[in-house]
């Protein structure tokens, strides 16, 4: 969007009849967007009319580089799970901005299509990128009719920056560092602390702003929490990675271990793949869709649910058909193994198996 004929312009005004001077604001870099958020979220700023000109959003993206031999030819199912979780979280944040609720199911099919991320895999299948440059104009265009105050405007910019800038990753790393009290660990466990220490002043100020806005606004807090969970899932599902780079920020092997070890201690889920039969389906709660499964390799029977709105949309019909005609189905399940049992099981993909 660096070319002039691709520029996007949006006008905010508290009154159609207002004839006061227009404040012009140009967005070329990520820091420009954070400066705009800072301006709009300041209660002391008596902003009446604002013209936002988007000159360049080429920086707006999610880019993940996995550094390990197992990622040279393909992405693992675990890594894909993290990317799917990121999409789901983004859908929920869009739903919050457009519908006032963090339910991805509240989005229309057209809205899901517009805000669907297109993950492109680079050479060697280790560099995954989803561009976000077309998402901010869409968000601003769709909330224009609801723009009764600058509050919704800065929330829209805030949510976009958390997912497609570096701010979301930075606040996740900072949040995790605070929770783990890195400064009390031994020298061999300070990879994450090194990252926090090396952040520049602008990054630290943006993190402080995110914290302040999350305390000030329930919606901002939900957007921040969703972004933290989205970035956490990418890191947590990078098993086998020596190091990863997210939006230009390299997370060292030490830091990856610190982040993933904290998940293992709490009994994080693993991904299991196998052939199952569908014993029964309980559709009484449309947000859960509980399913009783039988593992055909060992006969174990347990409950699982479809992981999220995206999985439900794509695989619900496969589950229903398998129950109806008593056929087998190949499932990928995220669950926590306790002894021989699977707990908190969620189906993340389903595929029909042709009869023998």
- Hey, roughly how much beta strand do the residues contain? 15-25%
- Please, how many helices? 11
Average pLDDT taken over every residue? 79
Please list the strands of the largest sheet in the order they lie side by side.
Answer: 5-6-4-7-8
Indicate the percent of residues in helices.
Answer: 40-55%
Distance between the termini: 53 Å
Roughly how many Å is the radius of gyration?
A: 22 Å
SSE topology string: EEHEEHHEEHHHHHHEEHEEEHEE
- Unreliable stretches: 1-5, 181-189, 262-268
| Oligomeric nature of the chains | single chain
Count the beta strands.
13
Which sheet architecture does the biggest sheet show? Answer: 5 strands, antiparallel
Shape: globular
Q: What structural category characterises the helix and strand content? A: alpha+beta
Give structural notes.
Helix content is 42%, strand content 24%. β2, α1 and β3 form a beta-alpha-beta unit. The longest helix has 23 residues, at 77-99. Mean pLDDT is 79; it is low at 1-5, 181-189 and 262-268. The strands form 3 sheets. A 5-stranded antiparallel sheet has the order 5-6-4-7-8. It has 11 helices and 13 strands. The protein has helices at 30-41, 77-99, 109-114, 135-143, 150-164, 167-180, 191-197, 201-216, 218-236, 253-265, 309-324; strands spanning 8-13, 23-27, 49-54, 61-67, 120-121, 127-131, 243-246, 249-251, 270-282, 290-295, 301-306, 328-338, 341-352. It is of the alpha+beta class.
């Amino acid at each position: 969007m660096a070319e002039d004929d691709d520029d996007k312009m949006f006008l905010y005004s508290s009154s159609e009849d207002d004839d006061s001077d227009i404040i012009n604001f140009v967005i070329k870099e990520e820091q420009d967007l954070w400066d705009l958020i800072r301006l709009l979220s300041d209660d002391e700023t008596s902003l009446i009319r604002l013209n936002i000109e988007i000159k360049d959003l080429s920086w707006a993206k999610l880019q993940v580089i996995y550094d390990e031999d197992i990622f040279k030819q393909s992405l693992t199912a675990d890594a894909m799970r993290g990317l799917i979780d990121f999409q789901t979280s983004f859908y929920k944040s869009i739903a919050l901005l457009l519908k006032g609720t963090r339910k991805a199911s509240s989005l229309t099919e057209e809205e899901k299509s517009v805000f669907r991320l297109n993950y492109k895999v680079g050479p060697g299948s280790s560099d995954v990128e989803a561009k976000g440059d077309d998402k901010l104009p869409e968000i601003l265009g769709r909330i224009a009719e609801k723009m009764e105050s600058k509050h919704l405007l800065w929330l829209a910019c805030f949510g976009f920056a958390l997912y497609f800038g570096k701010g979301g990753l930075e606040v996740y790393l900072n949040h995790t560092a605070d929770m783990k009290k890195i400064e009390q660990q031994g020298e061999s466990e300070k990879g994450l602390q090194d990252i926090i220490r090396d952040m520049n002043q602008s990054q630290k100020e943006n993190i402080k702003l995110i914290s302040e806005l999350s305390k000030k606004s329930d919606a901002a807090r939900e957007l921040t929490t969703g972004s933290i969970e989205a970035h956490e899932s990418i890191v947590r599902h990078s098993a086998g990675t020596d190091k990863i780079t997210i939006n230009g920020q390299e997370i060292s092997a030490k830091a990856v271990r610190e982040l993933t070890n904290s998940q293992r201690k709490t009994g994080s889920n693993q991904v299991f793949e196998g052939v199952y039969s569908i014993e029964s389906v309980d559709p009484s709660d449309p947000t859960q869709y509980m399913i009783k499964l039988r593992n055909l390799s060992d006969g174990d029977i347990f409950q699982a649910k479809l992981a999220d709105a995206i999985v439900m949309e794509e695989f619900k019909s496969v589950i229903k058909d398998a129950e109806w005609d008593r056929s087998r189905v190949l499932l990928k399940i995220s669950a926590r193994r306790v002894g021989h049992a699977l707990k908190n099981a969620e189906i993340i993909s389903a595929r029909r198996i042709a009869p023998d």
